[in-house]
Design brief:
Blueprint: H1 12-65, E1 68-73, E2 76-80, E3 86-92, E4 95-99, E5 107-108, E6 114-124, E7 135-146, E8 149-160
Antiparallel strand pairs: 1-2, 2-3, 3-4, 4-5, 6-7, 7-8
Length: 166
C-alpha cells in the first residue's frame, strides 16, 4: 500500500526564498519611486525658471518695443515707455526689478523661487539720425531649486524699437 503524506506547511527554506523575492520586489519599487520623486523635483525647478525667464523677457520686450530714449547698459536700462513714463529695469540681489516712477520705487518682476544670476542689456542704434533701427539685446541667466534639484536656464533675445528715430 502506498502512503501519501499530506504536508500542509512550508519548509524554512521555502519561506526564506519567498521572503527574499518579496524583499527584492519591494526594494525595486521603492528605488523607482525615489527616481520618480527626484525627476519630478527637477522638472518643477526647470518649469519655475522657464516661466520666470519667459515672463520677464516678455514684460520687458512689450514696453521696449513701444519705448524710446533708451539709456544704460550692463545690468540696467532706462527708457520712456508709450505712456510717457520713465521706466527702469535692473538686476538687484538676484531679482529683476522694474520702476515706473523714475526710479523712486522698484517692484520685483521675477518670482521668489528663481534666482537671476545675470542680466545684461546691449544697446545698438540709439544715436538720433544714424539711420539704424534702435535695438536692445537682452541676455539673462537664471536658476531655480526645488528640494536638492537645481535647474538653470540661459536666454538671449534682441528687441527692436517699433519706430525709427528721426
Amino acid at each position: 500500500m502506498i502512503k501519501i503524506h499530506d504536508n500542509k506547511g512550508l519548509t524554512l527554506i521555502e519561506l526564506l526564498v519567498a521572503m527574499g523575492i518579496f524583499g527584492l520586489v519591494i526594494g525595486m519599487v521603492f528605488g523607482v519611486l525615489g527616481l520618480v520623486i527626484v525627476n519630478q523635483r527637477r522638472i518643477i525647478a526647470l518649469k519655475n525658471v522657464g516661466d520666470d525667464v519667459r515672463f520677464t523677457i516678455e514684460s520687458m520686450a512689450r514696453e521696449i518695443r513701444t519705448g524710446g530714449n533708451f539709456s544704460g547698459g550692463g545690468n540696467s536700462i532706462s527708457f520712456t515707455n508709450a505712456k510717457g513714463e520713465s521706466v527702469n529695469y535692473r538686476l538687484s540681489n538676484g531679482i529683476v526689478e522694474k520702476s515706473s516712477d523714475g526710479g523712486l520705487t522698484h517692484s520685483a518682476v521675477t518670482g521668489s523661487e528663481t534666482t537671476i544670476n545675470y542680466l545684461n542689456f546691449y544697446l545698438r542704434g540709439q544715436a538720433a539720425g544714424d539711420g539704424l533701427q534702435p535695438r536692445i539685446t537682452v541676455t539673462i541667466g537664471a536658476a531655480s531649486q526645488v528640494g536638492n534639484q537645481r535647474a538653470s536656464l540661459e536666454a538671449q533675445t534682441t528687441i527692436s524699437e517699433r519706430f525709427l528715430q528721426s
